[in-house]
Give the backbone structure.
Amino acid sequence: MTKSDSGSGSGSGSGKDLTTLRIAQQPAADELLARSPLAALIGMLLDQQVPMEWAFAGPYTLAERMGSDDLDAAEIAAYGPDAFTALFTTKPALHRYPGSMARRVQQLCQYLVTEYGGDASAVWRDAGTGEELLRRLNDLPGFGTQKAQIFLALLGKQFGVRPTGWRAAAGAYGEEGSRRSVADITGPESLAEVRAYKQEAKAAAKAAKATKTAKAAKTAKGSPKAKG
């Protein structure tokens, strides 16, 4: 995945001005993410309920198991479902939930073939605004609003894909200097900072839920029906 002079991201994989990534924390895996738009999308898709570096190393392992140095949406879309699932479940598994993630990756690639001719970079290449890009990403199978915003932030911060209003469309993930997501990982130190933020956010959400449950229980206990 390359950056054009305009900063829109050509996705040609020609090797010129190649972005340097340190998300997977493995040179070969990060190199694939940097030159392959599809690998980056799949890494983002896998980024749930597993460590970030494990998720983004997945595309490289998948390519290896498919006997290639890159990933092709049309090839994945046409793969036999059982055989493709086996690529994920073979130990070491590509994900904590390899079977369901194999299906999601195939669904993503089938969508890309149908809507974008199998060209993952076409999702963002000609997007005129951040809102349009967010909509396109949100339409991808397996991408909810949060995942779409994080990937949009990743495109803007590390790939130079910056349509008008991209930071606003990415929400808090687009903020300069933030340490909220994979979009902000540039090495081991920032990875640790992002992980710490996620743990704090998870703890805060858990505490808020506990408080809400306690208040609801107290209200129910004090209601006339409960007293009667």
User: Anything to note?
Assistant: The first helix runs from residue 27 to 35. Residues 2-16 have pLDDT under 50 and may be disordered. DSSP finds twelve helices and no strands in the chain. The CA atoms of residues 172 and 178 lie 8 Å apart.
